[in-house]
UniProtKB/TrEMBL annotation:
SMART domains: AAA. Keywords: Amino-acid transport, ATP-binding, Cell membrane, Membrane, Nucleotide-binding, Transport. One of its GO terms (cellular component) is plasma membrane. It is a peripheral membrane protein. It comes from Proteus columbae. Residues 2-236 form the ABC transporter domain. This is Amino acid ABC transporter ATP-binding protein. CDD domains: ABC_HisP_GlnQ (cd03262). One of its GO terms (molecular function) is ATP binding. The keyword Signal does not apply.
Amino acid sequence: MISLKDVSKWYGQFQVLTECSTEVKKGEVVVVCGPSGSGKSTLIKTVNGLEPIQQGEIFVNEIKVNDKHTDLAKLRAKVGMVFQHFELFPHLSIIENLTLAQVKVLNREKGAAKEKGLKLLERVGLASHANKYPAQLSGGQQQRVAIARALCMDPIAMLFDEPTSALDPEMINEVLDVMVELANEGMTMMVVTHEMGFAKKVADRIIFMDEGRIVEDRPKNDFFDNPKSARAKDFLAKIL
Ligand code: ADP
Ligand code: MG
């Protein structure tokens, strides 16, 4: 479903990604980890075209992402993304946050969009908050809204960039629980996270990055039981 072939990227002179290749099959959950600054955010943002690349190829469901003819707005609707900071529209109510892109990007009729939004709010346990504004919700609740908003677009895959790292500890699990449920329902997911408990529970594979390279890309158990690279060993020793 997602395929990266020899992807390299530079910010000016600085090479942030070097020949990154991987594939994510339909229904797979891949956790991306590695030290701060290793290129994890940049890598997953290349998948939905939020970060352009200078070399290599990226395909999502046979659609070439790094092609100037590709409609990136449509692609981003199909590949949902959830960030560290929830990035809800502060001046819109929760339900308006959930319906806006459905109407604008997918041309859904307002009533149908609202119905879908309410259904997904219910799914993340927030149906009673539809008419509140983001600032009236806790961080954990806002992040669950952000996930629901992405799901309103009927995505074929979901990208998460450290979705719990801005949250107070007591709110982390309510967000991870929603993600575990999604994974168990068969959603294709790429997740940048340091939550190794989550990785152990639902990941199929782990990608470990260091200095812009994919250093390891292996089944979860291989990675945790027997990391190959010294950097991954070091990283796991610090984090587990
Ligand atoms: P990670 O998510 O693993 O912490 P990032 O992908 O955010 O890493 O960043 C990788 C490297 O690229 C870092 O050295 C960072 O400083 C640099 N970087 C990230 N975004 C930009 C940018 N817009 N311009 C220049 N350098 C950047
Ligand atoms: Mg990052």
